[in-house]
Design brief:
Blueprint (H helix, E strand, L loop, with lengths): L7 H17 L6 H10 L4 H17 L11 H5 L3 E2 L12 E4 L11 H18 L7 E6 L10 H14 L4 E7 L5 H8 L5 H5 L1 E4 L12 H4 L6
Parallel strand pairs: 2-3, 3-4, 4-5
Antiparallel strand pairs: 1-2
């Protein structure tokens, strides 16, 4: 879904909320982010204000601006999440690559993993077009096993995105999904809001070239054929 610039009425509310939040919190927030929260609350100004205050408190409580790679070094070593600077789609949206097959429930530090997800989301948004602030997420399902399925991690991931980064997802590609994931997906999709669910695309690796430069196969560790 392409970003739609704010209408005059939306911009008026965004500007007002921006000034109000500036007085209420020391944490900065972009007008695009305010617009995303406002639209996410179906243009309910009061509810958007509450959600924005909760988001800013979340940032403060979790020291979001202070998270560094060293804070999740053990999880990073697994290679289950990558977000290099050259990872972009054909429309230049920055991309996060996730390898569920490299995840093992019994050997995961949930706190580190949460920090890693947040860190990469923050980095992607800094690189994204400031007008839309959209990112792409790719799940390479090669090597996925039932032992890779971790519903606590999935809930964490969905919660972080939907509660604190609303409407930042441009599209999420799930690539080479195995049959055994079908049952998992039937449960996962129940935790997602309808707008996010519409942005999920199940594709085969041969379709990647329609959305990404040829280097995407290298980024995802896949062979073209």
């Amino acid at each position: 879904m392409e970003f739609v610039k704010p209408s005059k009425d939306e911009q008026k509310v965004v500007d007002m909320l921006f000034d109000k939040l500036h007085q209420e919190s020391q944490h900065k927030i972009t007008k695009t982010a305010i617009l995303r929260f406002y639209r996410g609350q179906q243009h309910n100004e009061e509810q958007a204000h509450k959600c924005l205050l909760a988001h800013l408190k979340w940032r403060q409580d979790n020291h979001i601006d202070d998270i560094k790679e060293d804070d999740f070094k053990n999880e990073y070593k697994t290679g289950k999440i990558l977000a290099e600077k050259e990872y972009v789609d054909l429309k230049n949206h920055p991309m996060i690559v996730i390898f569920p097959g490299k995840h093992h429930t019994h050997n995961t530090n949930l706190d580190e993993l949460k920090k890693m997800v947040i860190y990469f989301m923050e980095q992607m948004l800094k690189r994204a077009d400031s007008i839309g602030e959209r990112v792409v997420i790719c799940f390479n399902m090669d090597g996925f096993k039932l032992t890779s399925m971790d519903y606590d991690v999935v809930k964490l991931f969905i919660s972080v995105l939907q509660d604190n980064y609303p409407d930042t997802l441009y599209v999420c590609y799930i690539i080479n999904s195995p049959f055994i994931f079908k049952a998992c997906w039937s449960m996962i999709k129940m935790w997602m809001d309808p707008i996010t669910l519409e942005k999920i695309k199940f594709i085969h690796k041969d379709e990647l070239i329609n959305y990404f430069p040829e280097n995407v196969y290298l980024w995802l560790g896949l062979k073209k054929k």
